[in-house]
Design goal:
The structure is a single chain. The chain contains 24 helices and 18 strands. The chain starts with a strand and ends with a strand. Helix 9 crosses helix 10, helix 11 packs across helix 12 and helix 20 runs antiparallel to helix 21. By secondary structure, the chain is α/β, with parallel strands linked by helices. A hairpin with a 2-residue loop joins strand 10 and strand 11. The chain is globular and about 85 Å long. It is about 40% helix and about 15% strand. It folds into 3 domains: about 170 residues, no CATH class; about 220 residues, no CATH class; about 80 residues, no CATH class.
Length: about 600
């Protein structure tokens, strides 16, 4: 549910704690600890004492799916949204807690439809801290800087805010059920999915095809399992449409399905490392909060089971193989017996999701690599053909999902999607193929091989395999156009587009210190910022930027402001190879 409890303030202050408690726990929320009950009791007591003279609505445990968290309390009075986070027993105001309530406020402002135009007042209540002097500082977007209190002057804070914003109004009922339309970063999306949120909860409400595509793939998977078929799906999408999100959704949701192991595979090394680390940290934190014992290593191994580097998956499938008559076959001597081969030769995963499938290697590139690095001279397959053959080892059913990016340059040695199609036509005629009709378009590099599918016996075309709506931030919809016009030196067109980006700040300076200060001043809460440079930018050494000094992407993307290795510190930089597929809120491109 969106929230655990809601009521008018008038009704709330007259209810007993037991009546409110029964609504808070009406749905099974797991094993609620006694400390949670005590915390709610104190929160309710404070709010009752300070809301008696106001009219409006109150919500407890209001969901923020993008962050995978819930706000302790939201109070709506005369169109002003009060976001209240309690830290029961806290004796001081920690920066992490301040940023947490600020994040909640910013998330509502930018992604909660009924909050776009409303004033939002984040309040941190540390119940045993000293009471601070109240100074309400408003911003241009009507999000107030977090107000710090121990709760004793909460009524006064609300009165001051209502005087500052006297002329706002909103429909409290509509606010409570408002569409929630976030555009999460890949890391946040993966964390939310791993916490059993759905893609529908964490994606823009006008991008319903994320759920439609995921549901279609799950139906095909069930059918393949039931009829013992081998199936491959080609998913296309405009840039930023959420193809990776669909892949992560399939792999995480499969964890709850019986006998359905799914693995998300990507050749983007930094992305895979950061996703694994982020999900591991997140899960360890959850388990510790619930009082359950675990080690980071144990959790990390579980996460690696469904998110892997595609090259590690490929190498694992090489184990126990030999080349015979121009084919990759099992080495029976390695497995000692045919019985062992049956158990061990096929991957444990029945579903393999290949992100950026068009970047798989050609036969020449694969053969060269296998000869030099793996001591496999005469390797007979391209990477797509080999990967299909690995999943084809299953004796019952298997599924491959190819996520195909459009409008991208194909690098040397990358085969394009045509190599997958050639392999299906020449060697895997028994596989059932489900394709997006957009695969015929030039931007997906399918080539003439697509025409050959007309002769394949098992081909189904479905619009549900194309993601047509971009999930990019609504503030940046024309940013790509502006950048392209700028690079093409189309001066007047770029100027006109820039004027339409009024909510997306773009500035230029030749002073690196001024640029760093701008980032620090702009970012609020836990909004992340950092410096990005080209991997070829060797002449930035006078600015103390050396692209040869490689930063650790895990620390750069995940560490907090206090860690000198984090992007926040503005010392280490990321190149295009480090940041591919990942996102920052504010960037300085040097």
């Amino acid at each position: 549910m969106r929230f655990y409890y809601t009521n008018s303030i008038r009704e709330f202050v007259t209810q007993t704690f037991c009546e409110i408690w029964s609504q808070l726990t009406a749905i099974d929320h797991g094993n609620l600890l006694q400390t949670q009950k005590q915390a709610w009791e104190l929160q309710i007591d404070i709010l009752k004492n300070h809301l008696t003279n106001f009219q409006g609505n109150i919500y407890f445990e209001y969901s923020i799916p993008r962050l995978g968290k819930r706000i302790d309390a939201v109070v709506l009075i005369q169109g002003v949204i009060f976001v209240i986070e309690f830290k029961v027993g806290a004796k001081e105001y920690n920066n992490a807690d301040i940023n947490q309530v600020w994040d909640y406020a910013l998330d509502l402002k930018y992604f909660h439809e009924e909050s776009h135009t409303q004033p939002i007042v984040p309040i941190l209540v540390a119940t045993k801290a000293k009471c601070n002097e109240i100074n309400i500082i408003s911003q241009d977007d009507l999000v107030v800087q977090p107000i710090l209190t121990n709760g004793e002057n909460l009524e006064y804070i609300i009165q001051q805010a209502l005087q500052l914003y006297p002329s706002h109004s909103t429909d409290n009922y509509l606010w409570g059920i408002s569409r929630y339309a976030p555009t999460p970063t890949i890391v946040e999306a993966a964390q939310a999915l791993y916490q059993n949120h759905s893609v529908q909860e964490i994606s823009r409400s006008d991008a319903d095809n994320l759920s439609i595509t995921s549901d279609y793939i799950f139906r095909v998977a069930e059918e393949a399992k039931r009829h013992k078929q081998k199936v491959i799906c080609f998913v296309t999408g405009v840039p930023g449409a959420g193809k990776t999100l669909v892949g992560l959704n399939i792999s995480t949701q499969s964890l709850s399905k019986e006998d359905v192991n799914a693995v998300y595979l990507s050749g983007n090394g930094p992305l895979v490392k950061i996703l694994i680390e982020a999900l591991t940290r997140d899960k360890v934190h959850q388990l510790k909060q619930r009082g359950e014992k675990c080690t980071k290593k144990e959790i990390e191994q579980k996460v690696k089971a469904f998110i892997q580097n595609v090259h590690h998956f490929r190498d694992a499938c090489l184990e126990g193989t030999l080349i015979k008559d121009n084919e990759i076959v099992a080495d029976i001597e390695y497995f000692h017996s045919e019985k062992n081969r049956t158990k061990s030769f096929a991957p444990i995963d029945h579903i393999a999701i290949f992100d950026e499938a068009q970047r798989a290697w050609s036969k020449e590139m694969t053969a060269d690599f296998m000869h030099r690095k793996k001591n496999k001279p005469g390797f007979p397959y391209s990477e797509p053909e080999f990967l299909i053959s690995c999943m084809d080892r299953h004796e019952d059913w298997a599924m491959i999902i190819c996520l195909v990016g459009g409008g991208q340059e194909i690098n040397t040695g990358e085969a394009g999607i045509s190599e997958w199609i050639n392999a299906l036509n020449s060697r895997f005629q028994d596989w059932h193929i489900h394709i997006s009709p957009r695969l015929t378009e030039n931007e997906y590099a399918a080539g003439k091989a697509f025409e050959l599918l007309k002769g394949h016996p098992h081909v189904t075309t479905s619009d549900e395999l194309h993601l047509a709506v971009s999930l990019r931030s609504f503030r940046a919809e024309k940013l790509a156009l502006f950048v392209q016009q700028l690079l093409d030196r189309k001066k007047e067109q770029a100027q006109n587009t820039l004027h339409e980006l009024s909510k997306y700040p773009i500035v230029l300076t030749r002073d690196i210190e001024k640029a760093k200060q701008w980032l620090c001043d702009k970012a609020r809460g836990n909004e992340r910022y950092g410096i990005i440079v080209s991997s070829q930018a060797s002449r930035l050494r006078p600015l103390a930027i050396d692209v040869r000094a490689k930063s650790n992407p895990i620390h750069w993307f995940l560490a907090d402001r206090t860690d000198v290795r984090s992007s926040y510190y503005l010392e280490d930089v990321a190149t295009e190879f480090d940041i591919q597929g990942l996102e920052l809120d504010y960037t300085c491109i040097v």
